[in-house]
Amino acid sequence: MNLEPNAGPLPRRTILRGLGTIVALPFLEAMFPSTLVAATPKTPKSPKGPPRRLAFIYVPNGAHMPSWTPQAVGGNFTVPSILKPLAPFKDDMLVLSGLTQDKARANGDGAGDHARAAAAFLTGRQPLKTRGANIRAGVSADQVVAQELGHLTTFPSLELGCERGGQTGDCDSGYSCAYSNNIAWRNESMPLAKEVDPRLLFERLFPNITTREGQKRSKYRKSVLDYVLEDASRLGAKLGASDKRKLDEYMVSIREIEGRIQKAEADAKKRSPSSAQSKDAAKLGSSLPGGVPQDYGEHIRLMGDLLVLALQADLTRVATFMLANEGSNRSYRDIGVPEGHHDLSHHGNEKAKQEKVERINTFHAEQLAYILKKLRAAREGGASLLDRSIIVYGSGIGDGNRHNHDELPILVAGKGGGTLRPGRHIRYPKNTPLNNLFLALLARMEVSREALGDSTGMLPDLS
Q1: Is the overall model pTM greater than 0.85, yes or no?
Q2: Closest Cα to residue 117, out of 59, 160, 166, 73?
Q3: Under 8 Å between Cβ of 371 and 304
Q4: CB 407 within 8 A of CB 71
Q5: 411 - beta bridge partners?
Q6: Helices 229-236 and 241-271 sit at what angle, rounded to 10 degrees?
Q7: Which of 272, 264, 327 is closest to 297 using CA atoms?
């Protein structure tokens, strides 16, 4: 790496190395001329400086919309009950009402709203109704960005989730499971499977390219940082106080996340049955794979932390994160909801069931708040990572009881490098295409497209 005092900016692709281990670095002030460090662009175009990032976080089964939707429009809205966990981020978010994903509607194809909701969410294309291998949807918004900007990062995109899901079989009224279990589509016939194991994702982000050392790292529970301490010390000695503090905080974050993954793995081993009992236990579904925590909230937070690290280190600039598969019937016993989410979403207007749906929706909002807090805490060039990012959060279903695909629960957080004006609730005309939003966000990622799926133009009034 270039560490000479007068050698100009530190190369952005500077990495820490040691015994085959590679650790990418976050953006440091030393990587940019001082005139660019504090720049906060006010237009969708910015020639240099820290890049923008785009992430889509998906929740299944819609929301209890009366408790999601603010009553007032503009900047003086009161944060509704479901979004209360996000109140500290009110000035960093846009709540968007009136958006519709028409291609998630039946449009003559009959039942299967959950499958269509996920498959059409980022594509704006009507998925072909099939339970076979001839699946067809469209290119998703994240992959349009990946195709344009993916060559600039280690990973063109990342696909994360918290529920495994098959790519074959019938999961919803004649629709392949590939539709319900994916929102990222590289092309119209290739969904991108998501990673749900924090350990496997961690190893992708911070790989050990030497097999022997990788095995030792696993066997002796050594930290990835143990392999790069010498390189980190050498770099730290050449950095200014602000960059050195940022590097230290970044390394502490990696070690803390790694420790939580190791704890999840140790807990999983304690829960693992003996070999004689393994078949029966598998039938009961009592074991969890690898580094997946048993606690669902911790699982979401671990994956969210890894997502933040990936964005911070510029390992990718676009990602998708499904908190659960569409139609998920997961129970939420930890928050006092033992019933399945999908079953409750068919509440038939029963108040008790609606209250439990609201509780689940609020739990998901709490996890989003956790991720946004981490993005806000990460600093680069005089701004936060949240300021540099665009985080889209929502579902392809409005009210789970109605299975409608208009009036979707959609929220956008972050400032997109100064290209968004958050802190508002905006209501758009009925049946405004959701893909109009995505088309507008592509422009803010400096990706120019005339159309995306069923878009009719860029969504106005975001800046």
Answers
A1: yes
A2: 59
A3: yes
A4: no
A5: 95, 393
A6: 160
A7: 264
